[in-house]
Amino acid sequence: MRDPRSSISTTTLAIIIIVIVVVAVAGGVGYYVATRKPKTVTITAPTTTTPITAITFYTWWSTTGKVAMDNMFPVFESLYHITVQPEIVPGGGGINAKFAILALVEAGKPPAAFQTHMGPEMASYVAAAPNGIKSFVNLTPIAIKEGVWTGAIEEVLLAGTLNNTMLSMPVNVHKMAVLYFNAKLLREYNLPPPVNFSDLVYDTVQLYKHGVYPWLVSGAEGGWAQLNLWEDIFLSLAVQQFGPAGAARVYNEMVYGTIDLSNATILKLINETNYWFLNFTSYDYPGWQSLSWSQGVTLMAEGKVAFMALGDFVTNYAYDFDNITTYPYIPPYSNWTNVTIYATSFPGTQDIYSINVDSVAVPAGFPTTQYGLLLVEFWASYQGQSIWTKWKATTFWANATDFFNTPEQWWNYQTLKSTPPDQFVYTLSDGGLFDDVWQKWISYLLTYQETGPSYTNIYLSDLASLMYEECQDWLAVGKMGLGYLGISGQPFAGYLPPWVIVPGYYFNSSYTCPMYSLP
Are 158 and 118 in contact (CB under 8 A)? Predict the structure, then answer.
């Protein structure tokens, strides 16, 4: 088992830090109270012997998140007289920013606050930090004090709480496993909306026969869009095989690296996922290798591609940059004939909520720490949420009103509230994996699309190794007391990994991760 603090070599770390500087210069949970509006938080700015008037916030929010920051930060700054200076390291899914932040954390020089996904991704920073869990503020007491702990939708907090400990504060929720489709293209060729998987397959073939490139699966993010598509296909096929709750369990086993790859049914499911992944990506838009997901949104708006499988951040980008309002494919919107782009759960996954929880972490023990806490307290407050999520994603507060810019955000929020706990999954592409596993997986899938079927056996072998590494990473942070998602008696989606002993929930240090030989 590797030392979780030795994930980046000294030489590589030095190079990354130099690059970061150059870029910077250039650029229990309990039941919620549904009858009471969450309070507007009143926060008193802390005092310090050395006055601090500005803090640095590391992020990859260069598009929709940038618009949201431009709307929220001035309000925070006017109230507390602290300037927030975003250091934006762009790249979809955090492909560049994650490792910039990891390098700073490992070097003991983190920013005052930084963007991260809750859950395994946040655990990656803990594993890299010089003092492990003590390198970050435990935000659980603050979440309790500010009413987040009792006022939030429970599964959101469970998705990002590591064995009773919240090390990053949620700031919004994205619904993943969303398929966006250009309705005008489908109407033009009299094709059915892709409400089930067979319709999606049929539409893909028919559009191509009409000279339309059906898909944009972008390659500029190093394989992140490919993982989005692969995981969505897997989840859809798993629902067919096991039903919603069974599919969620199998998916979440991949989050922990505990999926049984010796099971013939599971292996068949993975092989079918690989088949359809190669099928759909064979219809990718020319030049996909260098196109970004945001360029893909524009191509879809222009009617040059029909489908994109991503998260609902697409909605905010279309609204902010293409002046297009996307609509959920539900009545009454589904009957409208003037809609260009619809959003729907990826065909076959309608009963599953694939969650992506954006959050903010605060490193501990620095002069800026108390100001980073001031920022996250405001950000998570109902007041901060009403500003931030108006422009980005959906709030986690359980009794929010519709203050969003688009009807898709409200649909997302209502779906979030109504999904049964055992039908949640933590999306692999955005937060559900440790960063080292995530980076390898996206690169393998990028190669898989570029190479085609001849790479299948190599990919299967790589996948087995990835699951082993993910399990090993969990065991490493389990020894730090962070061995599962959720709180005692209430794990995320009702699933506990095998190294957790019930009913005491104590870590079983003798557990050994399985290593499968595929194919």
Answer: no
| Nearest Cα residue to 383 out of 395, 369, 371, 370 | 395
The 8-class DSSP code of residue 249 comes to: H
* Cα–Cα distance for residue pair 446/277, rounded to 1 Å: 11
Q: Which residue, chain included where needed, has tokens 């260069």?
A: 62
CA–centroid distance for 12 within its chain: 26
- Which of 12, 111, 106 lies closest to 60, judged by CA? 111
Mean pLDDT of 267-283: 98
Q: Using an 8 Å Cβ cutoff, are 29 and 58 in contact?
A: no
Condensed to tens digits (0 to 9), the pLDDT of residues 118-151 reads 999 999 999 999 999 999 999 999 999 999 999 9
**Are 349 and 248 in contact, with CB atoms under 8 Å apart?**
no
Structure tokens at 519: 């194919």
When computed from its CA atoms, the radius of gyration of the chain, rounded to whole angstroms, is 22
Give ∠ CA 332-336-341 in degrees, rounded to 5: 105
Give the dihedral of Cα atoms 359, 361, 367, 368; nearest 10 deg. -20
pTM, rounded to two decimals: 0.90
Per-residue DSSP letters for 21-34? HHHHHH-------T
DSSP 401: -
- 3-class secondary-structure state, position 283: coil
Contact between 174 and 316 under an 8 Å Cβ cutoff? The reply is no
Instruction: Give the integer Cα–Cα distance in Å for 173 and 227.
Output: 19
